[in-house]
Amino acid sequence: MNPKGDIYLVTGNTDMRKSINGLSLIVSDVLEMDPLSRAWFVFCNRPRDKLKILFWDTNGFWLYYRRLEKGRFKWPVITDELEAITITQHQLNWLLSGLSLTVENAHKPLFDKVNR
Hints:
Layout: E1 7-10, H1 20-30, E2 40-44, E3 50-57, E4 60-67, E5 84-87, H2 89-96
Parallel strand pairs: 1-2
Antiparallel strand pairs: 1-5, 2-3, 3-4
């Protein structure tokens, strides 16, 4: 599935024992955002080997779960507290592929979308 809204990376460490209810409470109570929006919320654990993506679709939640058998996600270290930063679809793909969110070797767009 492709996100139809914003993608938020929830910085800090998340307890991966939390399921849909616990993660949606983090979105609403801690981040003060709407878990029923079209946004995707991406969470990661302390060892950086597990990741969950929560989002609402029409009449229910989706919860994607990814566990790495080897290696770690290149999760940005901003603070220990949970806060949301916006990332792009490309950055999410990079993260899921084991790359940093700031891939410096990525091709730059030739034209600014505003100028087209």
